[in-house]
Amino acid sequence: MADPFATAARRPALAAHASGAARASLTPAGPATRLSLRAKPEAVPALSAALGLDLPTQPKRAARQGERHALWLGPDEWLVIDESEAPLLQALDGAGVLHSAVDISHRNAAILVSGAGAAAVLNSGCPLNLSPAVFPIGACARTVLSKAEIVLYRTGETDFRVECWRSFAPYVLAVLAEAAAEV
Amino acid sequence: MLLIHCPYCGEDRSELEFRAAGDAHIARPANIAAISDEEFADYFFLRDNPKGLIYERWRHIHGCGRFFNAVRDTVSDKFVMTYKAGEPKPDLSPAPGVAPALPADSRPVETYEATEGRAE
């Protein structure tokens, strides 16, 4: 009988969960303050001034000012992220226009996917077209990754930020790690 | 993978991001307390099941979150068009004796009746 160990390679059970695979690396993002912001079009100028950036009004666009990002999620909905943990709710205190702002800093977790194979890793579970012509740097979209809903944000040519709900984070990380081990 | 055009995102997105939400253009009676049980059942429960074009509400739930309306062919599952919620119902019914106005890239679906004749 042939020796099965002659051809089989040992693959530890948790190997896929190790980060830093050859062509794509997965890094849990640091803490950030986040805001779910909803408002009618007439409130956008005042909210933009209060936040210090221009809220995007075109689909899939994001605006950036330093460590602060505003991601278009829908015609009246934005995800505002501040990586320097600056208080966002207080920034809107004096806006003086009708809007809804909910602090979701701790609802979301983020995973940074970067490397030459980043788009391939994401496309293993995400149906979006991630070619640079359609999804350029600064593009963002709420979409799905396998069975979880994510917000995908392209921060660089080969850098993506994946925002998901924190209870989904272990699943999302495992899905990405499995793909990263194979690209 | 079936692609659906979201009129709010302005591009074709995967069907995985969408949920169907029933028939579109169902008018709610002006005074719902005054209508009879039969009229209420007709408004609330009974829906057409057409073979051909159907007007439906869809929601881009894993995208922009918006409801919109879609015209779908129940035979081929092809989305003929989508339009924003609140816009008037487009009239796609063909004039008598004229073939339905389907997009140029759509081909007729091969059905059993067309290839084998009707089973008697």
TrEMBL record, chain A:
Signal peptide: none annotated. One of its GO terms (biological process) is sarcosine catabolic process. Gene3D superfamilies: Heterotetrameric sarcosine oxidase (3.30.70.1520), Probable tRNA modification gtpase trme, domain 1 (3.30.1360.120). One of its GO terms (molecular function) is sarcosine oxidase activity. InterPro entries: SoxG, SoxG_het, TrmE/GcvT-like. It comes from the Bacteria. NCBIfam families: soxG. This is Sarcosine oxidase subunit gamma.
From TrEMBL, chain B:
InterPro entries: SoxD, SoxD_sf. Transmembrane segments: none annotated. One of its GO terms (molecular function) is sarcosine oxidase activity. It comes from the Bacteria. Pfam families: SoxD. Residues 107-120 have a biased composition (Basic and acidic residues). One of its GO terms (biological process) is tetrahydrofolate metabolic process. Residues 87-120 are annotated as: Disordered. This is Sarcosine oxidase subunit delta. It comes from Xaviernesmea oryzae. The lineage of its organism: Bacteria, Pseudomonadati, Pseudomonadota, Alphaproteobacteria, Hyphomicrobiales.
